[in-house]
Design the sequence.
């Protein structure tokens, strides 16, 4: 199973929810999508990503 991060980010940017993506791609898990978002943020210039539940 290999999905390019770009494809996962495009699905999210198109308005699909995480739940909808997981329904369409049952071999993915929520953590896979969160990792894609983290990678995207880091690639966009963020120095680090802090999970919302870490506050």
Sequence:
């Amino acid at each position: 199973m290999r999905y390019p991060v770009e494809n996962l980010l495009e699905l999210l940017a198109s308005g699909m929810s995480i739940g909808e993506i997981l329904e369409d791609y049952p071999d993915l898990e929520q953590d896979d999508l969160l990792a894609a978002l983290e990678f995207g943020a880091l690639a966009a210039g963020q120095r680090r990503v802090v999970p919302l539940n870490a506050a």
Remarks:
- Residues 5-43 form one domain.
- The mean pLDDT is 88.
